[in-house]
Design brief:
binds NADPH dihydro-nicotinamide-adenine-dinucleotide phosphate; alpha/beta; UDP-galactose 4-epimerase, domain 1; NADP; GDP-mannose 4,6-dehydratase; four-stranded mixed β-sheet; about 20% strand; about 350 residues; 11 helices; binds guanosine-5'-diphosphate-rhamnose; Rossmann fold
């Protein structure tokens, strides 16, 4: 039996770590790419216990370099490429729109060009996003819903998405796109709202923080569990034909709802009072304010409501999410309580 070889760009990120764990469990040889920085951080693959797996090879690589992309494909002989690398934080994309375009948009094109030049039989997965729907044109969003991105990140991802479709149609490359709605986990970066909330709730519970500051509490998101979603990525590349698939839970909740759920998970009941910038959440047992709104976390343009239909993925790939939002939130709160108790938290 020949061993399958895959490249995962962005191994230091949330999805890269979970996907590597999945592919290793399926017997793949995995090349995981990381960027050269003054202090590379492998805490996620270490937390999953896969950092010393002999089938996981770590390769230095930057998505913005076409020649590096070509050499990456030549030197590894991979037959599947999962392009997860990106400047993925929507808020930062307003401050660094050009960097975001170069990494998140043109970076994907570098890989597609490298595939075209080195081995057009490579299967390519593009990490597309519900942020491409932005100002939503239909509820729920499906593969046929028109796009209307609301951030430089969303626009850059839409470019990469259409390039994937274009390389499929122009050159017959097996380029598939997963339009994934928000997916979270204990490995989520702390700049994203769910993990910011669960980490802060843990610190408040342990007396290490008084109050959590957030931006827009009304934003509604369709939140799933990252480990369920990387299984969907793999299925997308095992399909008979390249295609585009939405992965989502078909349930939407506000940021405010997630805050209440996280405090409940830590045994604290909260009540929201006031409106707009004056809204706060109060611990009903102590009367203390534990959440405030800080407008510095507002975005110049917001995505108000996301809810996706995974019907096509279910019908064609047999994929559906397995983890409820309550289970996901509890898992994240418990992981952050443990880390903050042990005095270690990334
Ligand atoms: P993360 O932000 O956790 O990880 C992004 C990864 O990309 C990191 O490993 C990062 O490396 C790497 N990276 C950034 N810039 C470059 C570069 N120039 N060259 C090479 N690597 C780079 O994202 P997630 O794991 O959450 O998401 C994975 C992908 O899926 C991303 O493309 C994201 O945009 C997309 N996506 C995510 C969703 C989600 O809800 N999580 C939903 C839909 C799409 P470093 O550690 O050095 O910064
Ligand atoms: P998002 O995720 O922008 O949907 O992108 P994020 O968790 O950053 O924001 C979700 C919503 O919460 C609101 N919000 C806050 N967000 C952050 N980060 N910090 C806050 O303090 C805060 N307060 C309120 C935001 O305004 C927003 O409405 C994520 C990323 O993983 C993308 O890469 C991915 O493509 C999409 O999910 C799907």
């Amino acid at each position: 039996m020949t061993i399958k070889t895959a490249i995962i760009t962005g191994i230091t990120g949330q999805d890269g770590a979970y996907l590597a764990e999945l592919l290793l469990s399926k017997g793949y040889k995995v090349y995981g790419t990381f960027r050269r920085t003054s202090s590379v951080n492998f805490w996620r693959i270490e937390e999953l216990g896969i950092e010393n797996d002999p089938n996981l090879l770590l390769v230095e690589y930057d998505l913005t370099d076409l020649s590096a992309s070509i050499r990456l494909l030549q030197s590894t002989g991979a037959t599947e490429v999962y392009n997860l690398a990106a400047q993925s934080f929507v808020g930062v994309s307003f401050e660094q729109p050009i960097t975001t375009a170069e990494i998140t948009g043109v970076g994907a094109l570098n890989l597609l060009e490298a595939i075209r030049l080195v081995n057009p039989n490579i299967r390519y997965y593009q990490a597309s996003t519900s942020e491409m729907f932005g100002k939503v044109q239909a509820i729920p969003q499906t593969e046929d819903t028109p796009f209307y991105p609301r951030s430089p990140y969303g626009v850059a991802k839409l470019y990469a998405h259409w390039m994937t479709v274009n390389y499929r149609e122009s050159y017959g490359i097996f380029g598939s796109s997963g339009i994934l709605f928000n997916h979270e986990s204990p490995l989520r970066g702390r700049e994203f709202v769910t993990r910011k909330i669960t980490d802060s709730v843990a610190k408040i519970k342990l007396g290490k923080l008084d109050c959590l500051e957030l931006g827009n509490l009304d934003a509604k998101r369709d939140w799933g569990y990252a480990k369920d979603y990387v299984e969907g990525m793999w299925r997308i590349l095992q399909a008979d034909e390249p295609d585009t698939f939405v992965l989502a839970t078909n349930r939407t909740e506000t940021v405010r709802d997630f805050v209440s759920m996280a405090f409940k998970g830590a045994g604290i009941a909260v009540e929201f009072k006031g409106k707009g910038e004056d809204e706060v959440a109060v611990d009903t047992a102590t009367g203390k304010i534990v959440v405030r709104v800080n407008p510095k976390f507002y975005r110049p343009a917001e995505v108000d409501l996301l809810i996706g239909s995974p019907a096509k993925a279910k019908a064609k790939l047999g994929w559906e999410p397995k983890t409820t939002l309550e289970q996901l939130c509890q898992m994240m709160v418990e992981a952050d309580l443990r880390r903050n108790t042990e005095g270690f938290s990334f």
